[in-house]
Structure formats: C-alpha cells, structure tokens
Amino acid sequence: MRTKIICGLLLAGAAAAPAVSHQARPAPGGKGEILWDSFGVPHVYAKTESGAFWGFGYAQAQSHGNLLLKLYGEARAKSAEYWGGSANETQDRWLIANDVPVRAGRWFQQQTPQMRADLDAFAAGINAYAAKHPDAIDPAMRRVLPITGLDVMAHAHRLMNYVYIASDRKVLADPATNEAGGSNAWAVAPSRSASGKAMLLANPHLPWAPSMLTYYEAHLNAPGYSVYGATQVGLPVLRFAFNNDLGFTNTVNTMLGYSSYTLTLADGGYRYDGKVLPFRTEQKSYKVRQADGSLKTVTFTQRYAVQGPVFDIPGGTTVALKVAGLDRPGVLKQYLDMGKAHNFAQFQAALRQMQVPMFNIVYADRAGHILYLDNGILPKHAGGDLAKWSAPVPGDTSATLWRDVHGYDDLPKVIDPASGFVQNANDPPWLATWPRVLDPKAFPAYVAPVGPVSQRAQMSVKLMTASPKISFDDFVARKLETRALMADRLLPELIAAAKDSTDPEIVEAVRLLSGWDHRFEADARGALLFETWAAMFAPKNFTDQSNYAVKWSLSDPLETPRGLKDPAGAVAMLKAAVARTRQLYGAVDRPYGEVSRFHLGDVSLPANGGFGNTGVFRTITWGPMKNGERTPMHGETWVSMIEFSTPMRAVGMMSYGNSSQPGSKHNSDQLQFLNSKTFRTLWIDRTEVERHVEERTPF
User: Of which family is this protein a member (predicted)?
Assistant: First the structure.
C-alpha cells in the first residue's frame, strides 16, 4: 500500500489567510524578512549571516519566548534568584560548582569575530521581540532580559557538557541516567534507492513537555547559507538539517565524555600517588528568591582535586569530576559549518573540528555519499571497558587520570558501505549497516558496549533490508511501521504454550492475541494486553532478558533474544497480565487508541506507536494513566524525510507543534499527522513558501 503524504496546505485549508505583517527592529547587516508559514515555521531571509541569526532569535522568541528566557536564566545559574525553589537552587549550585558561567564567558571570547557577531545578533533578535511584544512574555520570565550572546553560549555549554554529558543526576546519583533521550536515523545510498538518489531520515525522540529538549523547526537563508531543519529551543544553529546538497541528523550514543574519581580522604585533603594533597578551594555564592520577593545569598566552599571539582555523593563517598571537551568552545560553530557544507569533503572537514561532545551523526548527500559516525569527545584511557569508566574509578593514583582525547580518525564510522544504507536507533555502532563492517575488537572496549542491541534497532535494520531497493514511498511507509518485533518473536510460542489451557481468562487472552497483527494501531484490541504481559516478561522497561530462552549475542544480532525459557511461567504471567490490564484500562480488549491519546490542549486524537524496547520503530513512550487516558512522555517529535532528487522531496512534522507560547494555534496543530500517519510537505523553495504565508515580519 502506498503511504499517503498530505501537503500541509490541504489539511490547513484550501486558502491561506491573509498574511499579517509586523515590523521588527532593524537587524545587523541590513534588511530581511521572516515569512511564517501556516504551521508556524519561520522562513528567515536575510542579507547577511548575522541578519539570519537575528531573525532566528526573533522567531524563537515569538514561538517559545517563555521557555527560551527560562533556559537562559537557568544557564546563567540564576534560576533560584529569578524564581526560587529548591530544584532551581540545586541546579544553580551544580553549574556554579562546575564553573559553567565563568567558562561560558571565556568560550564566548574565544569565538571568531563573525561567530560572536552572530551570537550577539541572535540575542538582539530575542530582545527586539520582547521589546515589541512585552505582553507576550510572562512577567516572571522578563526578569531574564536583556539577553546577550554570552547567554546563548552559556546555554549551549550547559546543555552539551552538563546535561548531555555530565548532569548532576548522572554524576552524583546514577551513571545510567539518560538525559538525552533517543532517536532513529537512516541514510540510503543511490545503490539501494529505487530512484538512484540518496535519502535521509531524521527522527529524534525527546520529551513532549516543554523543556531544554523541545525542538523548533526553521528555515534559515543568508548569502552562502540556506538550511532547513530543527534544533533545540535556545540554540542558534540547526542540529538536524539539510540544504540542497546534503543533510545530517543526530542520534544519542553511548559516548562517555566524563570520568568520576573516588577520593580517599585524609588529614583534610586526599591521597594521591602516595601523598596527601590539600584541596584547592574557592568561595562561591548564588542568590535564592524568597516567598516575599527578597533575595537570600547562599555561600559555599567548592573544593577541587587534581581531577576537577569535588562533590559528596550519598553513602559517604567523595568524588572528583573530569569532563572532556572543556577546552573546546566550538560546538555551535561546528554545527553551523556542517550546515554550510555542500559536499562530503567540506562536511568531513567540519566533523574533524571535534567540538560536538556526543551523538552519532548520520549523513547523506546529493553526490550519493552516506556516513555513520559514532561521534564524541572521548577520553583516552589505558584500558578498561565502558562499564568500568561509567562508574567512579580510584582517584588516589595518577594511573587513572586521562590527559588526552581521541581524534576523528579513531572513532567508529561507516562510509559508503556496500549494503547501501546506514542506520542507528541508539544502538552501539556495530550494526550501523548489515552485513556488519565494524568489529568491536578493533576499538578500545570503552568506546561502546558490544551489546545488547535493542529490538527497536534490530527492527530498524530489518526495515532497511526488507527489499533490495527502497523507493521514497517505501522509505516513508517503513518509518511509520508500528509492528513490535518482540511480539513477532514471542507470541507464537506463548500462544502455543497456552492453547490447551481451560482457564477462561487464558482462553480469552489467546483468542485476543491470536487475532492481533502485532501492530500498535488505534483500533488494535490485543496491543494493551501484550504490552502489559511484555512488561512482566521483560522488566526494566522491556530490557531484562532473564526470561528469554536465548539471550542477545553479537553472533546472531538480529534474531536474539528469542524464545520462552519457561513456557509455563510465561503463561502464568499472561493470566496475571489479564488482571493487570483490566485494572489499568478497564477491560482486557479495549482499543489501543481509546486509552492511548495524542492529547495537547483541546486536541485529543486516538494514538498509534509504542514503546521502542518492544521493537516498535514508531516510538512513543507512554506516561501513566491519568483521567482515563495516557499521553506521550516522549517519542516521535521532529521528523524529516528527504530524497536528493530534482526537485528535492522533503516531508516531515513536528509532533507537538512549533510553538509553546500560551494561546498559540501552533502548539497542537500537527497532532493530526501523528494520528493519520501522514506528513506535511516541507516548503523549501521561496515561491512555494510564499503560497503558504500566514504572517510576515520585515526587519
């Protein structure tokens, strides 16, 4: 069946409303214009590069002003000063202890003159919007104004190095904490494409609640720079992007860009190489807003060891933290250069800057090149695997103290494989294509775990290898697949083990599951029961393999884990799942979409898609039941699918809409695409954009 791609104009209405025009304050470098399309996507056209940054800042303020200012207030480590609260205080103290505000100032000064001008212009655009529309910004957030280019840099530094890499939860509580979410990515080479043209999927899975991980879609145009895509609110460059010649996306990887060192305390200091060394100390402070509006100053002494700042963690342990990349201030410039590239050589030159601290990068271009890169700023260790370095290591010896990081040529990568595709679904690099071309033994064990590879990642490979050639319609249809690989593997055995039962509940469960096609669609009546059983069979978010007959192995990476280790026990779990499903959802056979809803504001639609660890590629992670329904916690957010044909084919969507501002009509207007499993046409050509203009902002 051909997948339906609906042009946004048709769903939005046959005729666009007359465009509204708002004159904005002048931008650096002369005139420009923001054309807002009917989905609230800003198409910025500027006479200079800095002008494009100004327009992008103005656009982000219009679409996400409250969130944007909150993020910059937090990046200043002044969130407790602005808004009070213990959580804000904890967050500020973490950033101050790690010198983030001070370092951000140094980083800003280390930018090229052009990049400093760009960051200042982005900030000026934000300020211009806030000055022109004071009533559109929450008064509590206006405390953060005005914004400077340094604030933009501080936000990027905080997000990349002290959220993604070394958050306080990860360092002080649980090293397994994932602050970065998940993603899917595909790149298809001409050899595997039915049209002979390369194709690229960008598909991050991030939280739906507004946060620093909220995505924003935009189209930026200036001399020498024309790029379409998305990025997190607050960042002035697109991280998931394409131009007429190439495109790139990111997925979360296992790159471990920090080390935590357990210190042995002695005589007011700590032991190191047989000596007792004193801590270096600094007095630091922050302010906390009180209930009456007054400010209380909190002062603390920050200790430093040879490895870095020192922290006490629960259980009486003291650790020092060393983060890689703190001497690399160019993450924003690297993403900018990636978007400016027009061929593979230029793109690789940007990658070789090695300023982006983590994330797989998947790439395709018009010339037919494709790339998978397990990217990141990775410390060089003398030995040990990822598990060893994820936990605190002994800090009483210089033997564990790394002093260098790996370069681009050291990292796992796949370029133009014979298979004709690369993929990643947050799995380790070894299945970047199939058949495998990367061998874990060729890399240090701390680069990435050997496995296990998730069933979502296995499904990703299976979807890419389902046919010798992939058309663009195939590409889109496979992205929308809701079938659970876990159900394919286990249900036949479970049904066979339960088919002779006379227990009425088991008989009904077998009937229900036998009639289900293993897809998480709105009308599916067996999906909720299977999901409930699967959570019992494979605890820990469907990852525990204890109940499988065969566990995952690299020697059979696409067919393991599989089988029921204890069929009778699995049937007993099925009976328990029947009771649990009734308790949770009111009936064992309720349609999936009655319970699972795409619900934002006044829009509530039956949902599809499911938990990725059950092997569903169309990933939605559901929150707990509330008010008779459950809604997405995270999952499908920004999606773009492109083919480098002439003209380029580009479709996509932003699940939760392109604005978080109160009252905006663009904070739920794209749920229809999730519900109908369709996409918008992404309007790239200016003539095409002009036909769908909702508002104009000249500057």
Answer: Belongs to the peptidase S45 family.
